[in-house]
Amino acid sequence: MPPTKSFAKKIPKKYQPPGFHILHEDVDLIVGIKEAGYLTVSALWNKEKTIHSALNEYVRKGNSKSRKCVFVVHRLDQGTSGILVFAKTEAVQFYLKDNWKSTTKTYYAVVSGKLTEKKGTISSYLEEDEDYVIHSNTEGKGKLAETEYQVLKETPHFSLLKINLLTGRKNQIRVHLADKGNPVVGDTKYGKKETKKHHHLALHAAALEFTHPHNQKRMRFACPPPPYFNQLIPYNYEGQS
C-alpha cells in the first residue's frame, strides 16, 4: 500500500460541512469536530441533515454525478459534541472497526450530584427496547458495555468526569451514569427532572487516538468542550484534553 498523503492546505470555513469542523483529511479518512445538535447518521425523523450526508456532499465537490462517499466508523449522539472520524473507503472502514478496541476514546461529562466512588469502572449489559430506549442489566442480555471514569472536580450540584470508553455501545455513557444515580446534565432521555432543565447535553468526545490504516502510526486528535461546560463547572479543559 502507498504511504498516506496528507492534505496540508487548510480548508476555508465556507467549505467546511455544516456542524462539522474538519481537523485532518488524507486519502484514507476525515477527522473533525461534530457540533452538538447534529445527527451523525440519518434517523427516522431526519434522513438528510446529518454529518454523514454533509461529508458525502463535501467529497463530491458539487458534482451531482459523483459516486464518492464517506463510510461511518462510529457515531456520537445528537446532543454530544466532539471528535468524530469517517473512512473514505470501505477497506479503511473495516480496518478501523476491526481495530476499534485499540482506539482510545476520551470523554468529558458533567453529571448531577456527587459520586461516592471517585473513580472506577461501570460494567453491565445493554439492550434496546422497541421504543429505542437502552436498558442496563447484569444478566447477560444484550451486549457487554464497560465505562471507566474519574472525577476531576465537584461543585455542590455537579461533578465533572473524565471517561475512558472501553466499549462503544449506543447511549452507553448516559445509561451507565444514570444507573449510578448521576445522570448527565441535560439528558432528556435518561436524566432526572433537575438535569433535563438544562438545554445542552453535557457530554463531549474530547479525544480520539487510533492507528492509521496505512502508515500504522498512532494519531491523536483532541478538542476542548463547548463553552457551556465551563458555565457548569469552570475547569482548564484546554490543558487536559
3D architecture notes:
It is a single chain. This protein has 241 residues and is an alpha+beta fold. The chain has one domain: Pseudouridine synthase. The chain is built from 5 helices and 11 strands, in the order ββαββαβββββααββα. It has helices at residues 51-60, 90-98, 172-179, 193-196, 228-232, and strands at residues 20-25, 29-34, 71-72, 81-87, 104-112, 119-128, 134-137, 143-154, 158-165, 203-211, 218-222. Strands 1, 2, 3, 4, 5, 6, 7, 8, 9, 10 and 11 form an 11-stranded mixed sheet that branches. The chain is globular, with a radius of gyration of 18 Å. It starts with 19 loop residues before the first strand and ends in a 9-residue tail after the last helix. The model is unreliable at 1-8 (pLDDT under 50).
Features:
32% strand, disordered N terminus, Pseudouridine synthase, alpha+beta, 11 strands, single chain, eleven-stranded mixed β-sheet, 5 helices, 241 residues
